[in-house]
Amino acid sequence: MSVREINFDGLVGPSHNYAGLSLGNLASSRNAGAVSHPRAAALQGIEKMRGNLRLGLAQGIFLPQWRPDGAWLATLGTDISNADPHVRAAAMSASSMWAANAATVSPAADTADGRIHLTVANLVTMAHRSHEWPQTLAQLRLAFSDTRAFAVHGPIPAPFGDEGAANHMRLSDSHGAPGVEVFVYGQSGGPFPARQHVEASKAVARIHGLDPARTLFVQQSQEAIAAGAFHNDVVAVANERVLFTHEQAFADKQAFYASLRTLLPSVEIVEVPASAVSLADAIKSYLFNAQLATLPDGTMALILPSEAQTVPAVWTWLEQMIAGNGPIRRLIPVDVRQSMANGGGPACLRLRVVADPKDIDPRFLVDEARLDEIARIVSDYWPETIAPDDLSDTRLIARIEQSWLSLVDHLQLSGDLMP
Ligand code: SUG
Q1: pTM of the model
Q2: Which of 43, 75, 179, 241 gives 20 to 30 Å between its CA and that of 294?
Q3: CATH topology for the 4-417 domain
Q4: Is 231 one of the catalytic residues?
Q5: Which pLDDT score is estimated for 188?
């Protein structure tokens, strides 16, 4: 069995738009009302996946969800023609593209029954994301249907907010070795909602059968949430034995680092000091919302948003880091600007699964030829632009539905995923 890390990227859906729906996500608020470019957004995401393949990484894909979500609107006693504008926008959101919020994943080496466990995130804090989980769960149950290898769990019940892998890190000597799983949660009281609740994190750890002695629950700092770090993956990222983090990411970093060093003596903590990069610059540049990946030659690369190059303090610090002798050896900027304008960087767009690719439904794995086909469908069908007022336009809605049908039909998933 050959276990490796596979990144599943969420393909940007044809309804991608800027409705300003996420309080506490500064980019989403700043760009509210702007004209979006769904076709360019999806093509940017496809190029990112292509880049990963060319680096020798394994790549999977999750499909956009059916929008508008008529089933959800029906539970609210309405439909797309009659819904209030903010409810209509929530029903149209393409937010499932941020696959880091699809689920929390525990690799087989960490779980009591030796299977890979996935719990779909309930995303209850934000209305527009709270209705993602049923369609996400349907895809997880298809992609990871082999119950000898995988256990896929339903959502943690409300009111305990769970935002999935965006608040979960795993450190280990190698992907296949037993790891330390770190669940980062927020505490309410600041200007913005804390979207990950500790009760949800603890429930996920129990359901996955994790060893309590190798599981940490770490509080995110209030300052980080107040500065716009609505998920931990905006201020920290881990890969194998490396933790790359902002100095102010955690409420009690000394206690966290000490536990980590005890549980994983080989850990390397690369901390960016606030004196070099402020929290504000970290959030503007999203330098931590990067894929920290182990390349086939064993070195690590940081696949980060191109915005990081435009914030001088950030780029200067990163260049110094690369010039030194640390574990991160390469910087690879990628253009995901359409997603970034809604607060989603390279790390938000992907869910990491450590598994044997042979155990996964091949319809959810991609190579370059398959990406070419998907790019062709996107170019043929995805709307070029969406302005906020377009969300009530029946022609746009018909086009979004047609785009989705063409894609799932081409990928031979229509029988399984039709709403
Ligand atoms: O949940 N933005 C997403 C961005 C998610 C980023 N994911 C991670 N950090 N892992 C969110 O806030 C904006 C949608 C809008 O305003 O139209 C949005 O949902």
Answers
A1: 0.97
A2: 43
A3: L-arginine/glycine Amidinotransferase; Chain A (3.75.10)
A4: yes
A5: 85
